[in-house]
Design brief:
The complex is a heterodimer of chains A (215) and B (455).
Chain A lengths: L1 H9 L3 H13 L4 H21 L5 H24 L9 E6 L7 H12 L3 E4 L6 H11 L3 E5 L6 H13 L7 E5 L5 H6 L4 E3 L2 H15 L3
Parallel strand pairs in A: 1-2, 1-3, 3-4, 4-5
Helix pairs in contact in A: 1-2, 1-3, 1-4, 2-4, 3-4, 3-5, 4-5, 5-9
Chain B lengths: L3 H10 L5 H19 L14 H18 L1 E3 L4 E3 L3 H10 L3 E4 L6 E4 L12 E2 L5 E2 L1 H12 L6 E2 L3 E2 L1 E2 L2 E2 L5 H20 L6 E4 L6 H7 L10 E6 L4 E2 L1 H13 L2 E6 L2 E2 L6 H19 L3 E4 L2 E2 L8 H17 L4 E6 L8 H15 L3 E6 L10 H16 L4 H13 L18 E2 L4 E2 L1 H18 L4
Parallel strand pairs in B: 1-13, 5-7, 5-19, 6-8, 7-11, 11-12, 12-14, 14-16, 15-17, 16-18, 18-19
Antiparallel strand pairs in B: 1-2, 3-4, 9-10, 20-21
Helix pairs in contact in B: 2-3, 2-9, 3-9, 3-10, 4-9, 5-6, 5-12, 6-7, 9-10, 10-11, 11-12, 11-13
Classes of the chains: A alpha/beta (215), B alpha/beta (455).
Chain lengths: 215, 455
């Protein structure tokens, strides 16, 4: 049954994911176990295979969609039973102001989802105040900004300045990345984390969250 | 040719579609179907393929994708589609030869053939990079003074007037003007005032482009890039760039950079997407020539084996079936000052020159750091000219490229990023320092011995 859930997610099959979720509940499987041992295992395989280019972004997106459908069935039941869901963290992610290149950001968003993060993807060319507003609204752990343009990098600096100006810098883990963004530059603007690629972004996000002690 | 006004009409009235639907149900789905139908396979042992039928299949599949998909306008969420007549008219009317630059520095840029024995046009510069204003001029001179470099495509400016340039702000205008002013000044100082520029890299939105359509900045013999967004998309900023040059008359150049691992899928789907993008770039933007830039989802570099396979297959697909003028990017993971940059440059350049594209680079460190100079581009030119002069066949090229790729493929994730330009050159004289020159001489000999090319 758990394999069925994992496979439905891996294959990006919405209807099978929904069907397997209902069957798991009917069979008396703890919804938390179904999430962690079924759905998450499927997504984890997706992440691994994408990293090795065995599958591509569309497959990752479809798997993520199937996972969302299944979570829509399993999560309410888990909450009803008083389970505390083991999400790795809540993320607001966007391609920052002035930039419309979003595939790199989409890849990172998908890989974060595949690793259990709750991801709120605001899209591209997103003003920094909108990112902060969303982070405040959902009580996010992370604000992640991406760009492929060197001339949009200063907006990342502006994002951190705005958080400081509002007195909420310490509330968030700020991560930056994208084609021209370097580790040194991320450090120089006071970002908390940087990923040279999607895999590193996920690893760093996990480390930073663990260091912070949530959840 | 379909007029730009008709393109704008279609952007406003074409079929409405949500973007995610276009990404998944049009691009991803059709690329996957066409890869399967034409049985296109990436073979890491055949980076430079000699398989003519593979190239022809990729072209045919790309043509079908162009007809099926059209281009998605992200501002209006509508499809700009072209019929078969319009697509074929675009292909047939594409320039086969162009005069670029002025006076004694002008060159004929031409559509290369497979295994073409003619010397390629060498386009030099660290394209795509953000170059500090204080080094921009000497760095540009370091390329201009290389006699083997025929035209220039250097990076943009991250700062101007001592201030950071932010996209779509007034400083983008000044940065683009300053970039062009400095390139023109560098050309004069290098004694090559007429050298052709592929420029306005500081113009990320349409703002910068609007500000340089003047003989004082960008001449009509120069060119600017108009990207096709990933994958098979455009927006009003891109279309505005085309409209701005419509009456002005400088050259539009389609920048096509599909991502391996992205919506088009693996190397095979990306190859099909490339062909569709070039065809649609010509139909939509009226581009005179095109830039082929496969992006590796992790390393970015065009020197990654999957990317070079794309350059090879797509170059041949176009050369055999459409004869577009195409520049193939040479973007390395390593930086100037390293030894690794020479292996990547050699493999990437040989691939391009033998399979129908002119080399454009070296954009060392993928333009991430300003760790670049004229010297590694001199090497790119020497390799490119030797490969055509020595009449390297695709089969020979493949053996060489596969061996060269072994020298760096496992280091692309953690490359030697080298040193910044001022640590490699005497910036006042624009000459490489002895240490960098010695590395160049050493690697030139090593690669000449390894490849058999007379450099």
């Amino acid at each position: 049954m758990l394999d069925e859930l994992a496979n439905a997610v891996y294959n990006g099959d919405d209807s099978k994911a929904a069907e397997a979720s209902r069957k798991a509940l009917e069979a008396g499987i703890d919804p938390l176990v179904a999430i962690n041992e079924g759905l998450m295992k499927g997504m984890s395989r997706v992440g691994e295979d994408f990293s090795q280019l065995k599958i591509y972004l569309p497959e990752v997106m479809m798997a993520s969609e199937a996972m969302k459908v299944a979570l829509g069935i399993l999560e309410p039941e888990a909450l009803r039973r008083g389970s505390s869901l083991t999400r790795r963290g809540r993320v607001v992610i966007a391609t920052i102001t002035g930039d419309i290149h979003d595939i790199g950001k989409n890849i990172v968003a998908m890989l974060l989802r595949a690793n259990g993060f709750e991801v709120h993807d605001l899209g591209r060319d997103v003003p920094i105040d909108e990112m902060v507003r969303k982070a405040e609204e959902i009580n996010a752990d992370f604000i992640c900004a991406s760009t492929l343009l060197s001339t949009s990098m200063p907006y990342m600096e502006d994002l951190i300045a705005l958080l400081k100006e509002k007195g909420i810098r310490e509330k968030y883990i700020v991560m930056v990345g994208g084609g021209p963004v370097t580790r040194e530059w991320a450090k120089s603007i006071g970002a908390d984390g940087y990923g040279d690629d999607g895999d590193e972004a996920v690893r760093v996000a996990k480390e930073l969250l663990q260091r912070r002690g949530t959840p | 040719m379909t007029s730009i006004w008709e393109v704008i009409d279609r952007a406003e009235t074409g079929a409405y579609m949500e973007e995610v639907e276009f990404d998944l149900k049009v691009v991803a789905k059709r690329c996957r179907e066409l890869v399967k139908e034409y049985e296109i396979r990436y073979d890491p042992k055949q980076i430079v393929t000699s398989d003519d039928s593979l190239a022809d299949d990729v072209f045919e599949a790309g043509l079908r994708l162009a007809l099926d998909s059209g281009v998605y306008c992200v501002d209006t969420k509508r499809l700009i589609k072209f019929d078969e007549y319009e697509i074929k008219e675009g292909i047939m009317s594409a320039p086969k030869r162009l005069l670029i630059g002025e006076g004694k520095d002008s060159r004929v840029l031409y559509a290369r053939r497979v295994e073409d024995e003619r010397p390629p046009i060498i386009c030099g510069g660290q394209a795509g990079a953000a170059i500090p204003e204080e080094w921009y001029l000497p760095m540009a001179i370091s390329y201009m003074k290389e006699p083997l470099i025929d035209m220039i495509n250097n990076g943009g400016l991250a700062m101007v007037e001592g201030r950071k340039v932010r996209t779509k702000t007034p400083l983008e205008i000044q940065a683009t003007r300053r970039e062009l002013s400095m390139l023109r000044e560098a050309a004069r100082r290098a004694g090559r005032p007429g050298i052709s520029l592929l420029a306005a890299e500081s113009s990320v939105s349409a703002l910068g482009d609007l500000a340089i359509a003047s003989e004082a900045y960008m001449r009509r013999s120069d060119s600017h890039l108009v990207a096709l967004l990933n994958e098979l998309k455009t927006d009003y900023d891109r279309i505005s760039k085309v409209v701005n040059f419509y009456e002005y008359g400088a050259h539009n150049v389609t920048l096509v950079d599909p991502i391996i691992g992205g919506y088009a899928g693996g190397p095979e789907g990306v190859a099909i997407c490339f062909v569709a993008s070039f065809i649609l770039g010509r139909a939509m933007y009226g581009s005179d020539y095109h830039v082929c830039h496969p992006i590796h989802f992790r390393y970015m570099s065009t020197s990654a084996p999957e990317c070079m396979w794309n350059l090879s297959v797509v170059g041949q697909a176009m050369a055999r079936n459409a004869q577009f003028i195409i520049m193939g990017d040479v973007w390395t993971s390593a930086g100037a000052g390293s030894e690794m940059v020479f292996y990547e440059t050699a493999a990437n350049t040989i691939t391009n020159v033998v399979t129908g594209t002119h080399p454009l680079g070296v954009s060392a460190t993928n333009g991430k750091y300003p760790h670049a100079s004229g010297l590694e581009t001199r090497f790119m030119a020497e390799i490119g000219l030797a490969a055509s002069r020595d009449k390297i066949s695709r089969k020979q090229a493949n053996s060489i490229v596969v061996e060269l790729a072994k020298k760096y493929a496992d280091r692309q994730g953690k490359p030697d990023i080298g040193k910044p330009f001022p640590e490699l050159y005497d910036t006042a004289k624009a000459i490489p320092n002895p240490e960098w020159k010695a590395t160049y001489e050493k690697m030139k000999k090593e690669i000449s011995d390894l490849t058999g090319l007379k450099l």
